[in-house]
Amino acid sequence: MKARQHGQIVEELRQRLARRESLFLPMTTILETGNHIGQNGDGRARRACATRFVDQVSQAMNGTSPFKPISFLTPEEMAKWLHAFPAPANGGSGLGDLSIIHDWERLCAQNKGRRVYIWSLDVHLSGYDQAPAL
Q: What pLDDT score does 98 carry?
């Protein structure tokens, strides 16, 4: 289902870039995308996709992409995330989703005067949206 929305996602990206939004690329997203690519059963398609993926992430890491990678974990951050993982308030989220939510919380605290939201097709993540404080 989500793979069929490629054109829509590319258009949304164009709009975000035109608005000069800051786009952050969480480490979890890099890892999970790599996992999905690695599970592709077609070796040629997997290699082609992996090559494009490495190129895109490399561009983000060297500053030539609109995305800025974040969340190269410190031991303290990992301990905080692990502590929250089994909590009932977690609502069944995986550790990857929790790390994205923690990134969002940190960015909200650092950017009180700006809108901060999670751009995701996952409904439980897309609801995280902080309006700018006045």
A: 85
- Report which residue type is found at 58: S
- Looking up tokens 């800025």 gives 68
* Boundaries of every domain in the chain: 23-71, 73-134
Reported pTM: 0.80
Structure-derived torsion over alpha carbons of residues 100, 105, 106, 112, reported in degrees to the nearest 10: 140
Q: Which value, in Å, is the radius of gyration of the alpha carbons in the chain?
A: 16
The secondary structure of 42-111, three-state, reads CHHHHHHHHHHHHHHHHHHHCCCCCEEEECCCCHHHHHHHHHHCCCHHHCCCCHHHHHHHHHHHHHHHHC
- Packing angle of the helix pair 95-110, 27-38 (nearest 10 deg): 150
